[in-house]
Specification:
The complex is a heterodimer.
Chain A (H helix, E strand, L loop, with lengths): L4 E3 L11 H11 L8 E6 L2 E7 L3 E5 L5 E6 L4 E11 L5 E10 L4 E11 L6 E11 L4 E11 L6 E11 L4 E10 L3 E10 L4 E10 L4 E10 L4 E11 L4 E10 L3 E11 L4 E10 L4 E10 L3 H9 L4 H12 L2
Parallel strand pairs in A: 2-6, 5-7, 6-8, 7-9, 8-10, 9-11, 10-12, 11-13, 12-14, 13-15, 14-16, 15-17, 16-18, 17-19, 18-20
Antiparallel strand pairs in A: 1-3, 2-3, 4-5
Helix pairs in contact in A: 2-3
Chain B lengths: L1 E11 L29 E12 L4 E5 L6 H9 L6 E6 L2 E2 L5 H7 L1 E4 L11 H10 L5 H9 L19 H10 L4 H4 L10 H15 L3 E5 L10 H14 L3 E5 L3 H4 L4 E6 L2 E7 H9 L15
Parallel strand pairs in B: 3-8, 3-9, 6-7, 7-8
Antiparallel strand pairs in B: 1-2, 1-4, 4-5, 9-10
The chains are: A mainly beta, B alpha/beta.
């Protein structure tokens, strides 16, 4: 474990976090206070707080918005938190964060974005996260998105994640967006080297007139590589979701994608899975199922004494857990 | 006490849909009373049944396939709505009540083919069963904290009451499952039919309501676990004043009931003490006076 070095950006100019920002931070990063390990907190377009460790360095980019997170080879059991909160209505930003993970690492990276918009102008956070993962490493990457505020302005997030998984490395990615984001376009692309693995679990819920589009593109380039893309989504009210997944098997490899969608009210979901085998030993599977909550599931929970609304909530909660 | 008065249930011959409209789980759905359209071809599944089930009774309902047994059980729970007739529970007319209302009055129902859920664990299901059981203090707490229309989405813990784990283990071990292996498993396709069935029965034990209806509890239970299952029902009957109604084809289950009702072609063909009915049933199809049709296996 490295010694945490706390660096405050622009000393003396930092405003303490207000309650809204704290709530957003809690929603997207599960943080009540400053986290242990390395972190960088970005609020309303500026890095407001940062800590590095002996093994994990965070450097502000000079040519564009964003940071480089450099994780030294051999770093084990350390974490990096890089939450973003936007509470000023009308703020639009484009951020580039690059992660360099050395060989033989085992780290957890928690990112996330919370937007509170109580004004009439759109608030928008676009981010491109690029991961360069070395050999024999394990990276767990958690990303949560959350929106709040009752203004007319939209809460828009367009995250893009690019991953290069090195030999024998394993990337676990969990993304959650369950509340309050009006519009999202999410693009995740991954390239896997020999014996590299990736598992992506996506949980998504849309309400009202929200729209969400997620697209996965995975290239299984290395021999023995594998990918498992699991998406569970719930679309309520008038919301609209599109799920696209493309897996290219370019060597002896295994790929699986699964999209499970629950539609409620007048919502719409499209699932467009695509698998391409460019090698005779590529094994690729896709599954997609969309439908409303099975009537018998509601009936079963009602026989336990739940009302229909409670039963529905229980089923949705479990599904997105 | 449960009373079925002049209970009828018809479906249209073409659609196999109930004549009073497809079952709807909506609580506000108008409980079906729509009359049969003149000239519509109808099939009577339940024909004017009158039955009374006393408190602390242990009654098995048996009869040939397609005789209306499962439908009768679903009518009691409110999963199907009768075309005509009334259902009284402890003197209250529950004919128009929703499934949830009947459940909260103290009626439980074990499905013949238990339902699978993605993302709901065995312990969640048992917690829901216990939390919503009659007389439980958790009942009020849960009912009040859950908003009716706009329930919180994922992440909220509102509808999951706390389960008393030692109890949950108890319920599972009663049905022959090692709690440690099962408590954190999802009630999904990873469970075998037999495992699912036992978990279903465990949820009914957990509810511990005055009336429990089991629709073919033996289906999918292996031979080795059968004695255990018999024991479960005997214990339930002995240890409480609750009533049990078991739909069953199994001689060994019929053999532990106090009373047996024979249902065939939608009508009650016989009802009586086990000692009177069972020997007659066991004489086989050719000699059994309860059946006029040769379809009894």
């Amino acid at each position: 474990m490295g010694v945490t070095a706390k660096i405050s950006i622009k000393k003396g100019l930092i405003k303490p976090m207000d309650e809204i920002q704290k709530t957003l931070l809690e929603q997207v990063a599960g943080l009540h206070e400053m986290p242990a390990g390395a972190y960088n907190i970005r609020a309303n377009g500026k890095s407001t707080d940062r800590a590095t460790t002996a093994h994990i360095d965070i450097v502000t980019k000079t040519d564009k918005q964003g940071i480089d997170i450099v994780i030294k080879p051999g770093t084990k059991k350390e974490s990096v938190h890089i939450p973003v909160v936007l509470s000023e209505s009308g703020l639009t930003e484009m951020v580039y964060n690059d992660f360099y993970v050395g060989d033989d690492c085992d780290v957890t990276i928690v990112a996330g974005c919370g937007i509170h918009n109580s004004g009439d102008a759109d608030s928008r956070h676009d981010g491109i996260h690029t991961f360069y993962i070395g050999k024999n490493s394990h990276v767990k990457y958690v990303e949560k998105h959350y929106g709040s505020g009752d203004g007319k302005g939209g809460r828009i997030m367009n995250p893009e994640t690019r991953v290069e998984v090195g030999e024998n490395s394993f990337m676990e990615m969990e993304t959650v967006q369950i509340k309050g984001v009006d519009s999202t376009k999410r693009l995740t692309s991954a390239k896997l080297a020999e014996n590299a693995r990736i598992i992506v679990t996506e949980k998504l819920m849309t309400h009202g007139t929200q729209t969400a589009e997620t697209c996965f593109q995975v290239d299984l380039d290395g021999e023995g590589s594998s990918a498992n893309i699991i998406s569970r989504s719930v679309a309520r009210d008038e919301s609209n979701q599109i799920f696209l997944s493309k897996i290219n098997g370019n060597h002896r490899c295994k790929g699986h994608s699964e999209c499970d969608g629950i539609i409620m009210d007048s919502a719409k979901i499209s699932a467009i899975p695509e698998i391409t085998a460019n090698h005779p030993d590529a094994e690729l599977i896709h599954e997609a199922a969309i439908g409303k909550i099975a009537g018998e599931q509601i009936v079963k929970l009602m026989t336990l004494g739940l009302t229909e609304a409670e039963a529905e909530a229980q089923i949705v909660n479990g599904f997105l857990k | 006490m449960l009373e079925l008065q002049n209970l009828c249930f018809q479906i249209s011959k073409d659609t196999t849909e109930p004549m009073n409209g497809v079952f709807s789980a909506k609580e506000d759905s108008p409980a079906g009373k729509a009359p049969l359209e003149k000239g519509a071809a109808a099939k009577e599944i339940i024909k004017n049944i009158n039955l009374t089930f006393d408190d602390h009774s242990f009654i098995a309902i048996t009869g040939p396939n397609g005789g209306g047994k499962s439908t009768l059980a679903k009518l009691i729970m409110g999963i199907e709505q009768p075309t005509s007739g009334r259902i009284l529970y402890n003197g209250t007319d529950i004919t128009q009540m929703s499934i949830s209302e009947r459940a909260n009055l103290g009626i439980s129902f074990a499905f013949q083919q238990p339902v699978r859920f993605k993302g709901i664990k065995v312990k969640d299901l048992i917690a829901l069963a216990t939390g919503k059981a009659m007389g439980s203090t958790a009942n009020n707490a849960v009912g009040k904290t859950t908003s009716k229309t706009d329930s919180e989405p994922a992440g909220s813990q509102k509808t999951t009451p706390r389960v008393n784990l030692p109890n949950a283990c108890d319920y599972l071990s009663k049905v022959g499952l090692c709690a440690r292996d099962y408590i954190n498993r999802d009630v999904d396709a990873s469970l075998s039919g037999g495992e699912l069935k036992r978990i279903e029965i465990a949820t009914i034990i957990a509810r511990n309501t005055p009336l429990s209806v089991f629709d073919e509890p033996e289906a999918g239970i292996d031979l080795w676990s059968f004695n255990n299952l018999i024991q479960v029902f005997e214990d339930m009957h002995r240890e409480s004043d609750n009533s049990l109604i078991l739909i069953s084809h199994q001689e060994r289950i019929l053999n532990i009931a106090d009373e047996i009702i024979v249902l065939a072609e939608g009508s009650v063909k016989a009802r009586g003490r086990r000692e009177e009915i069972l020997p007659e049933l066991l004489r086989g199809t050719e000699g059994c006076k309860f059946y006029s049709t040769p379809q009894m296996a």
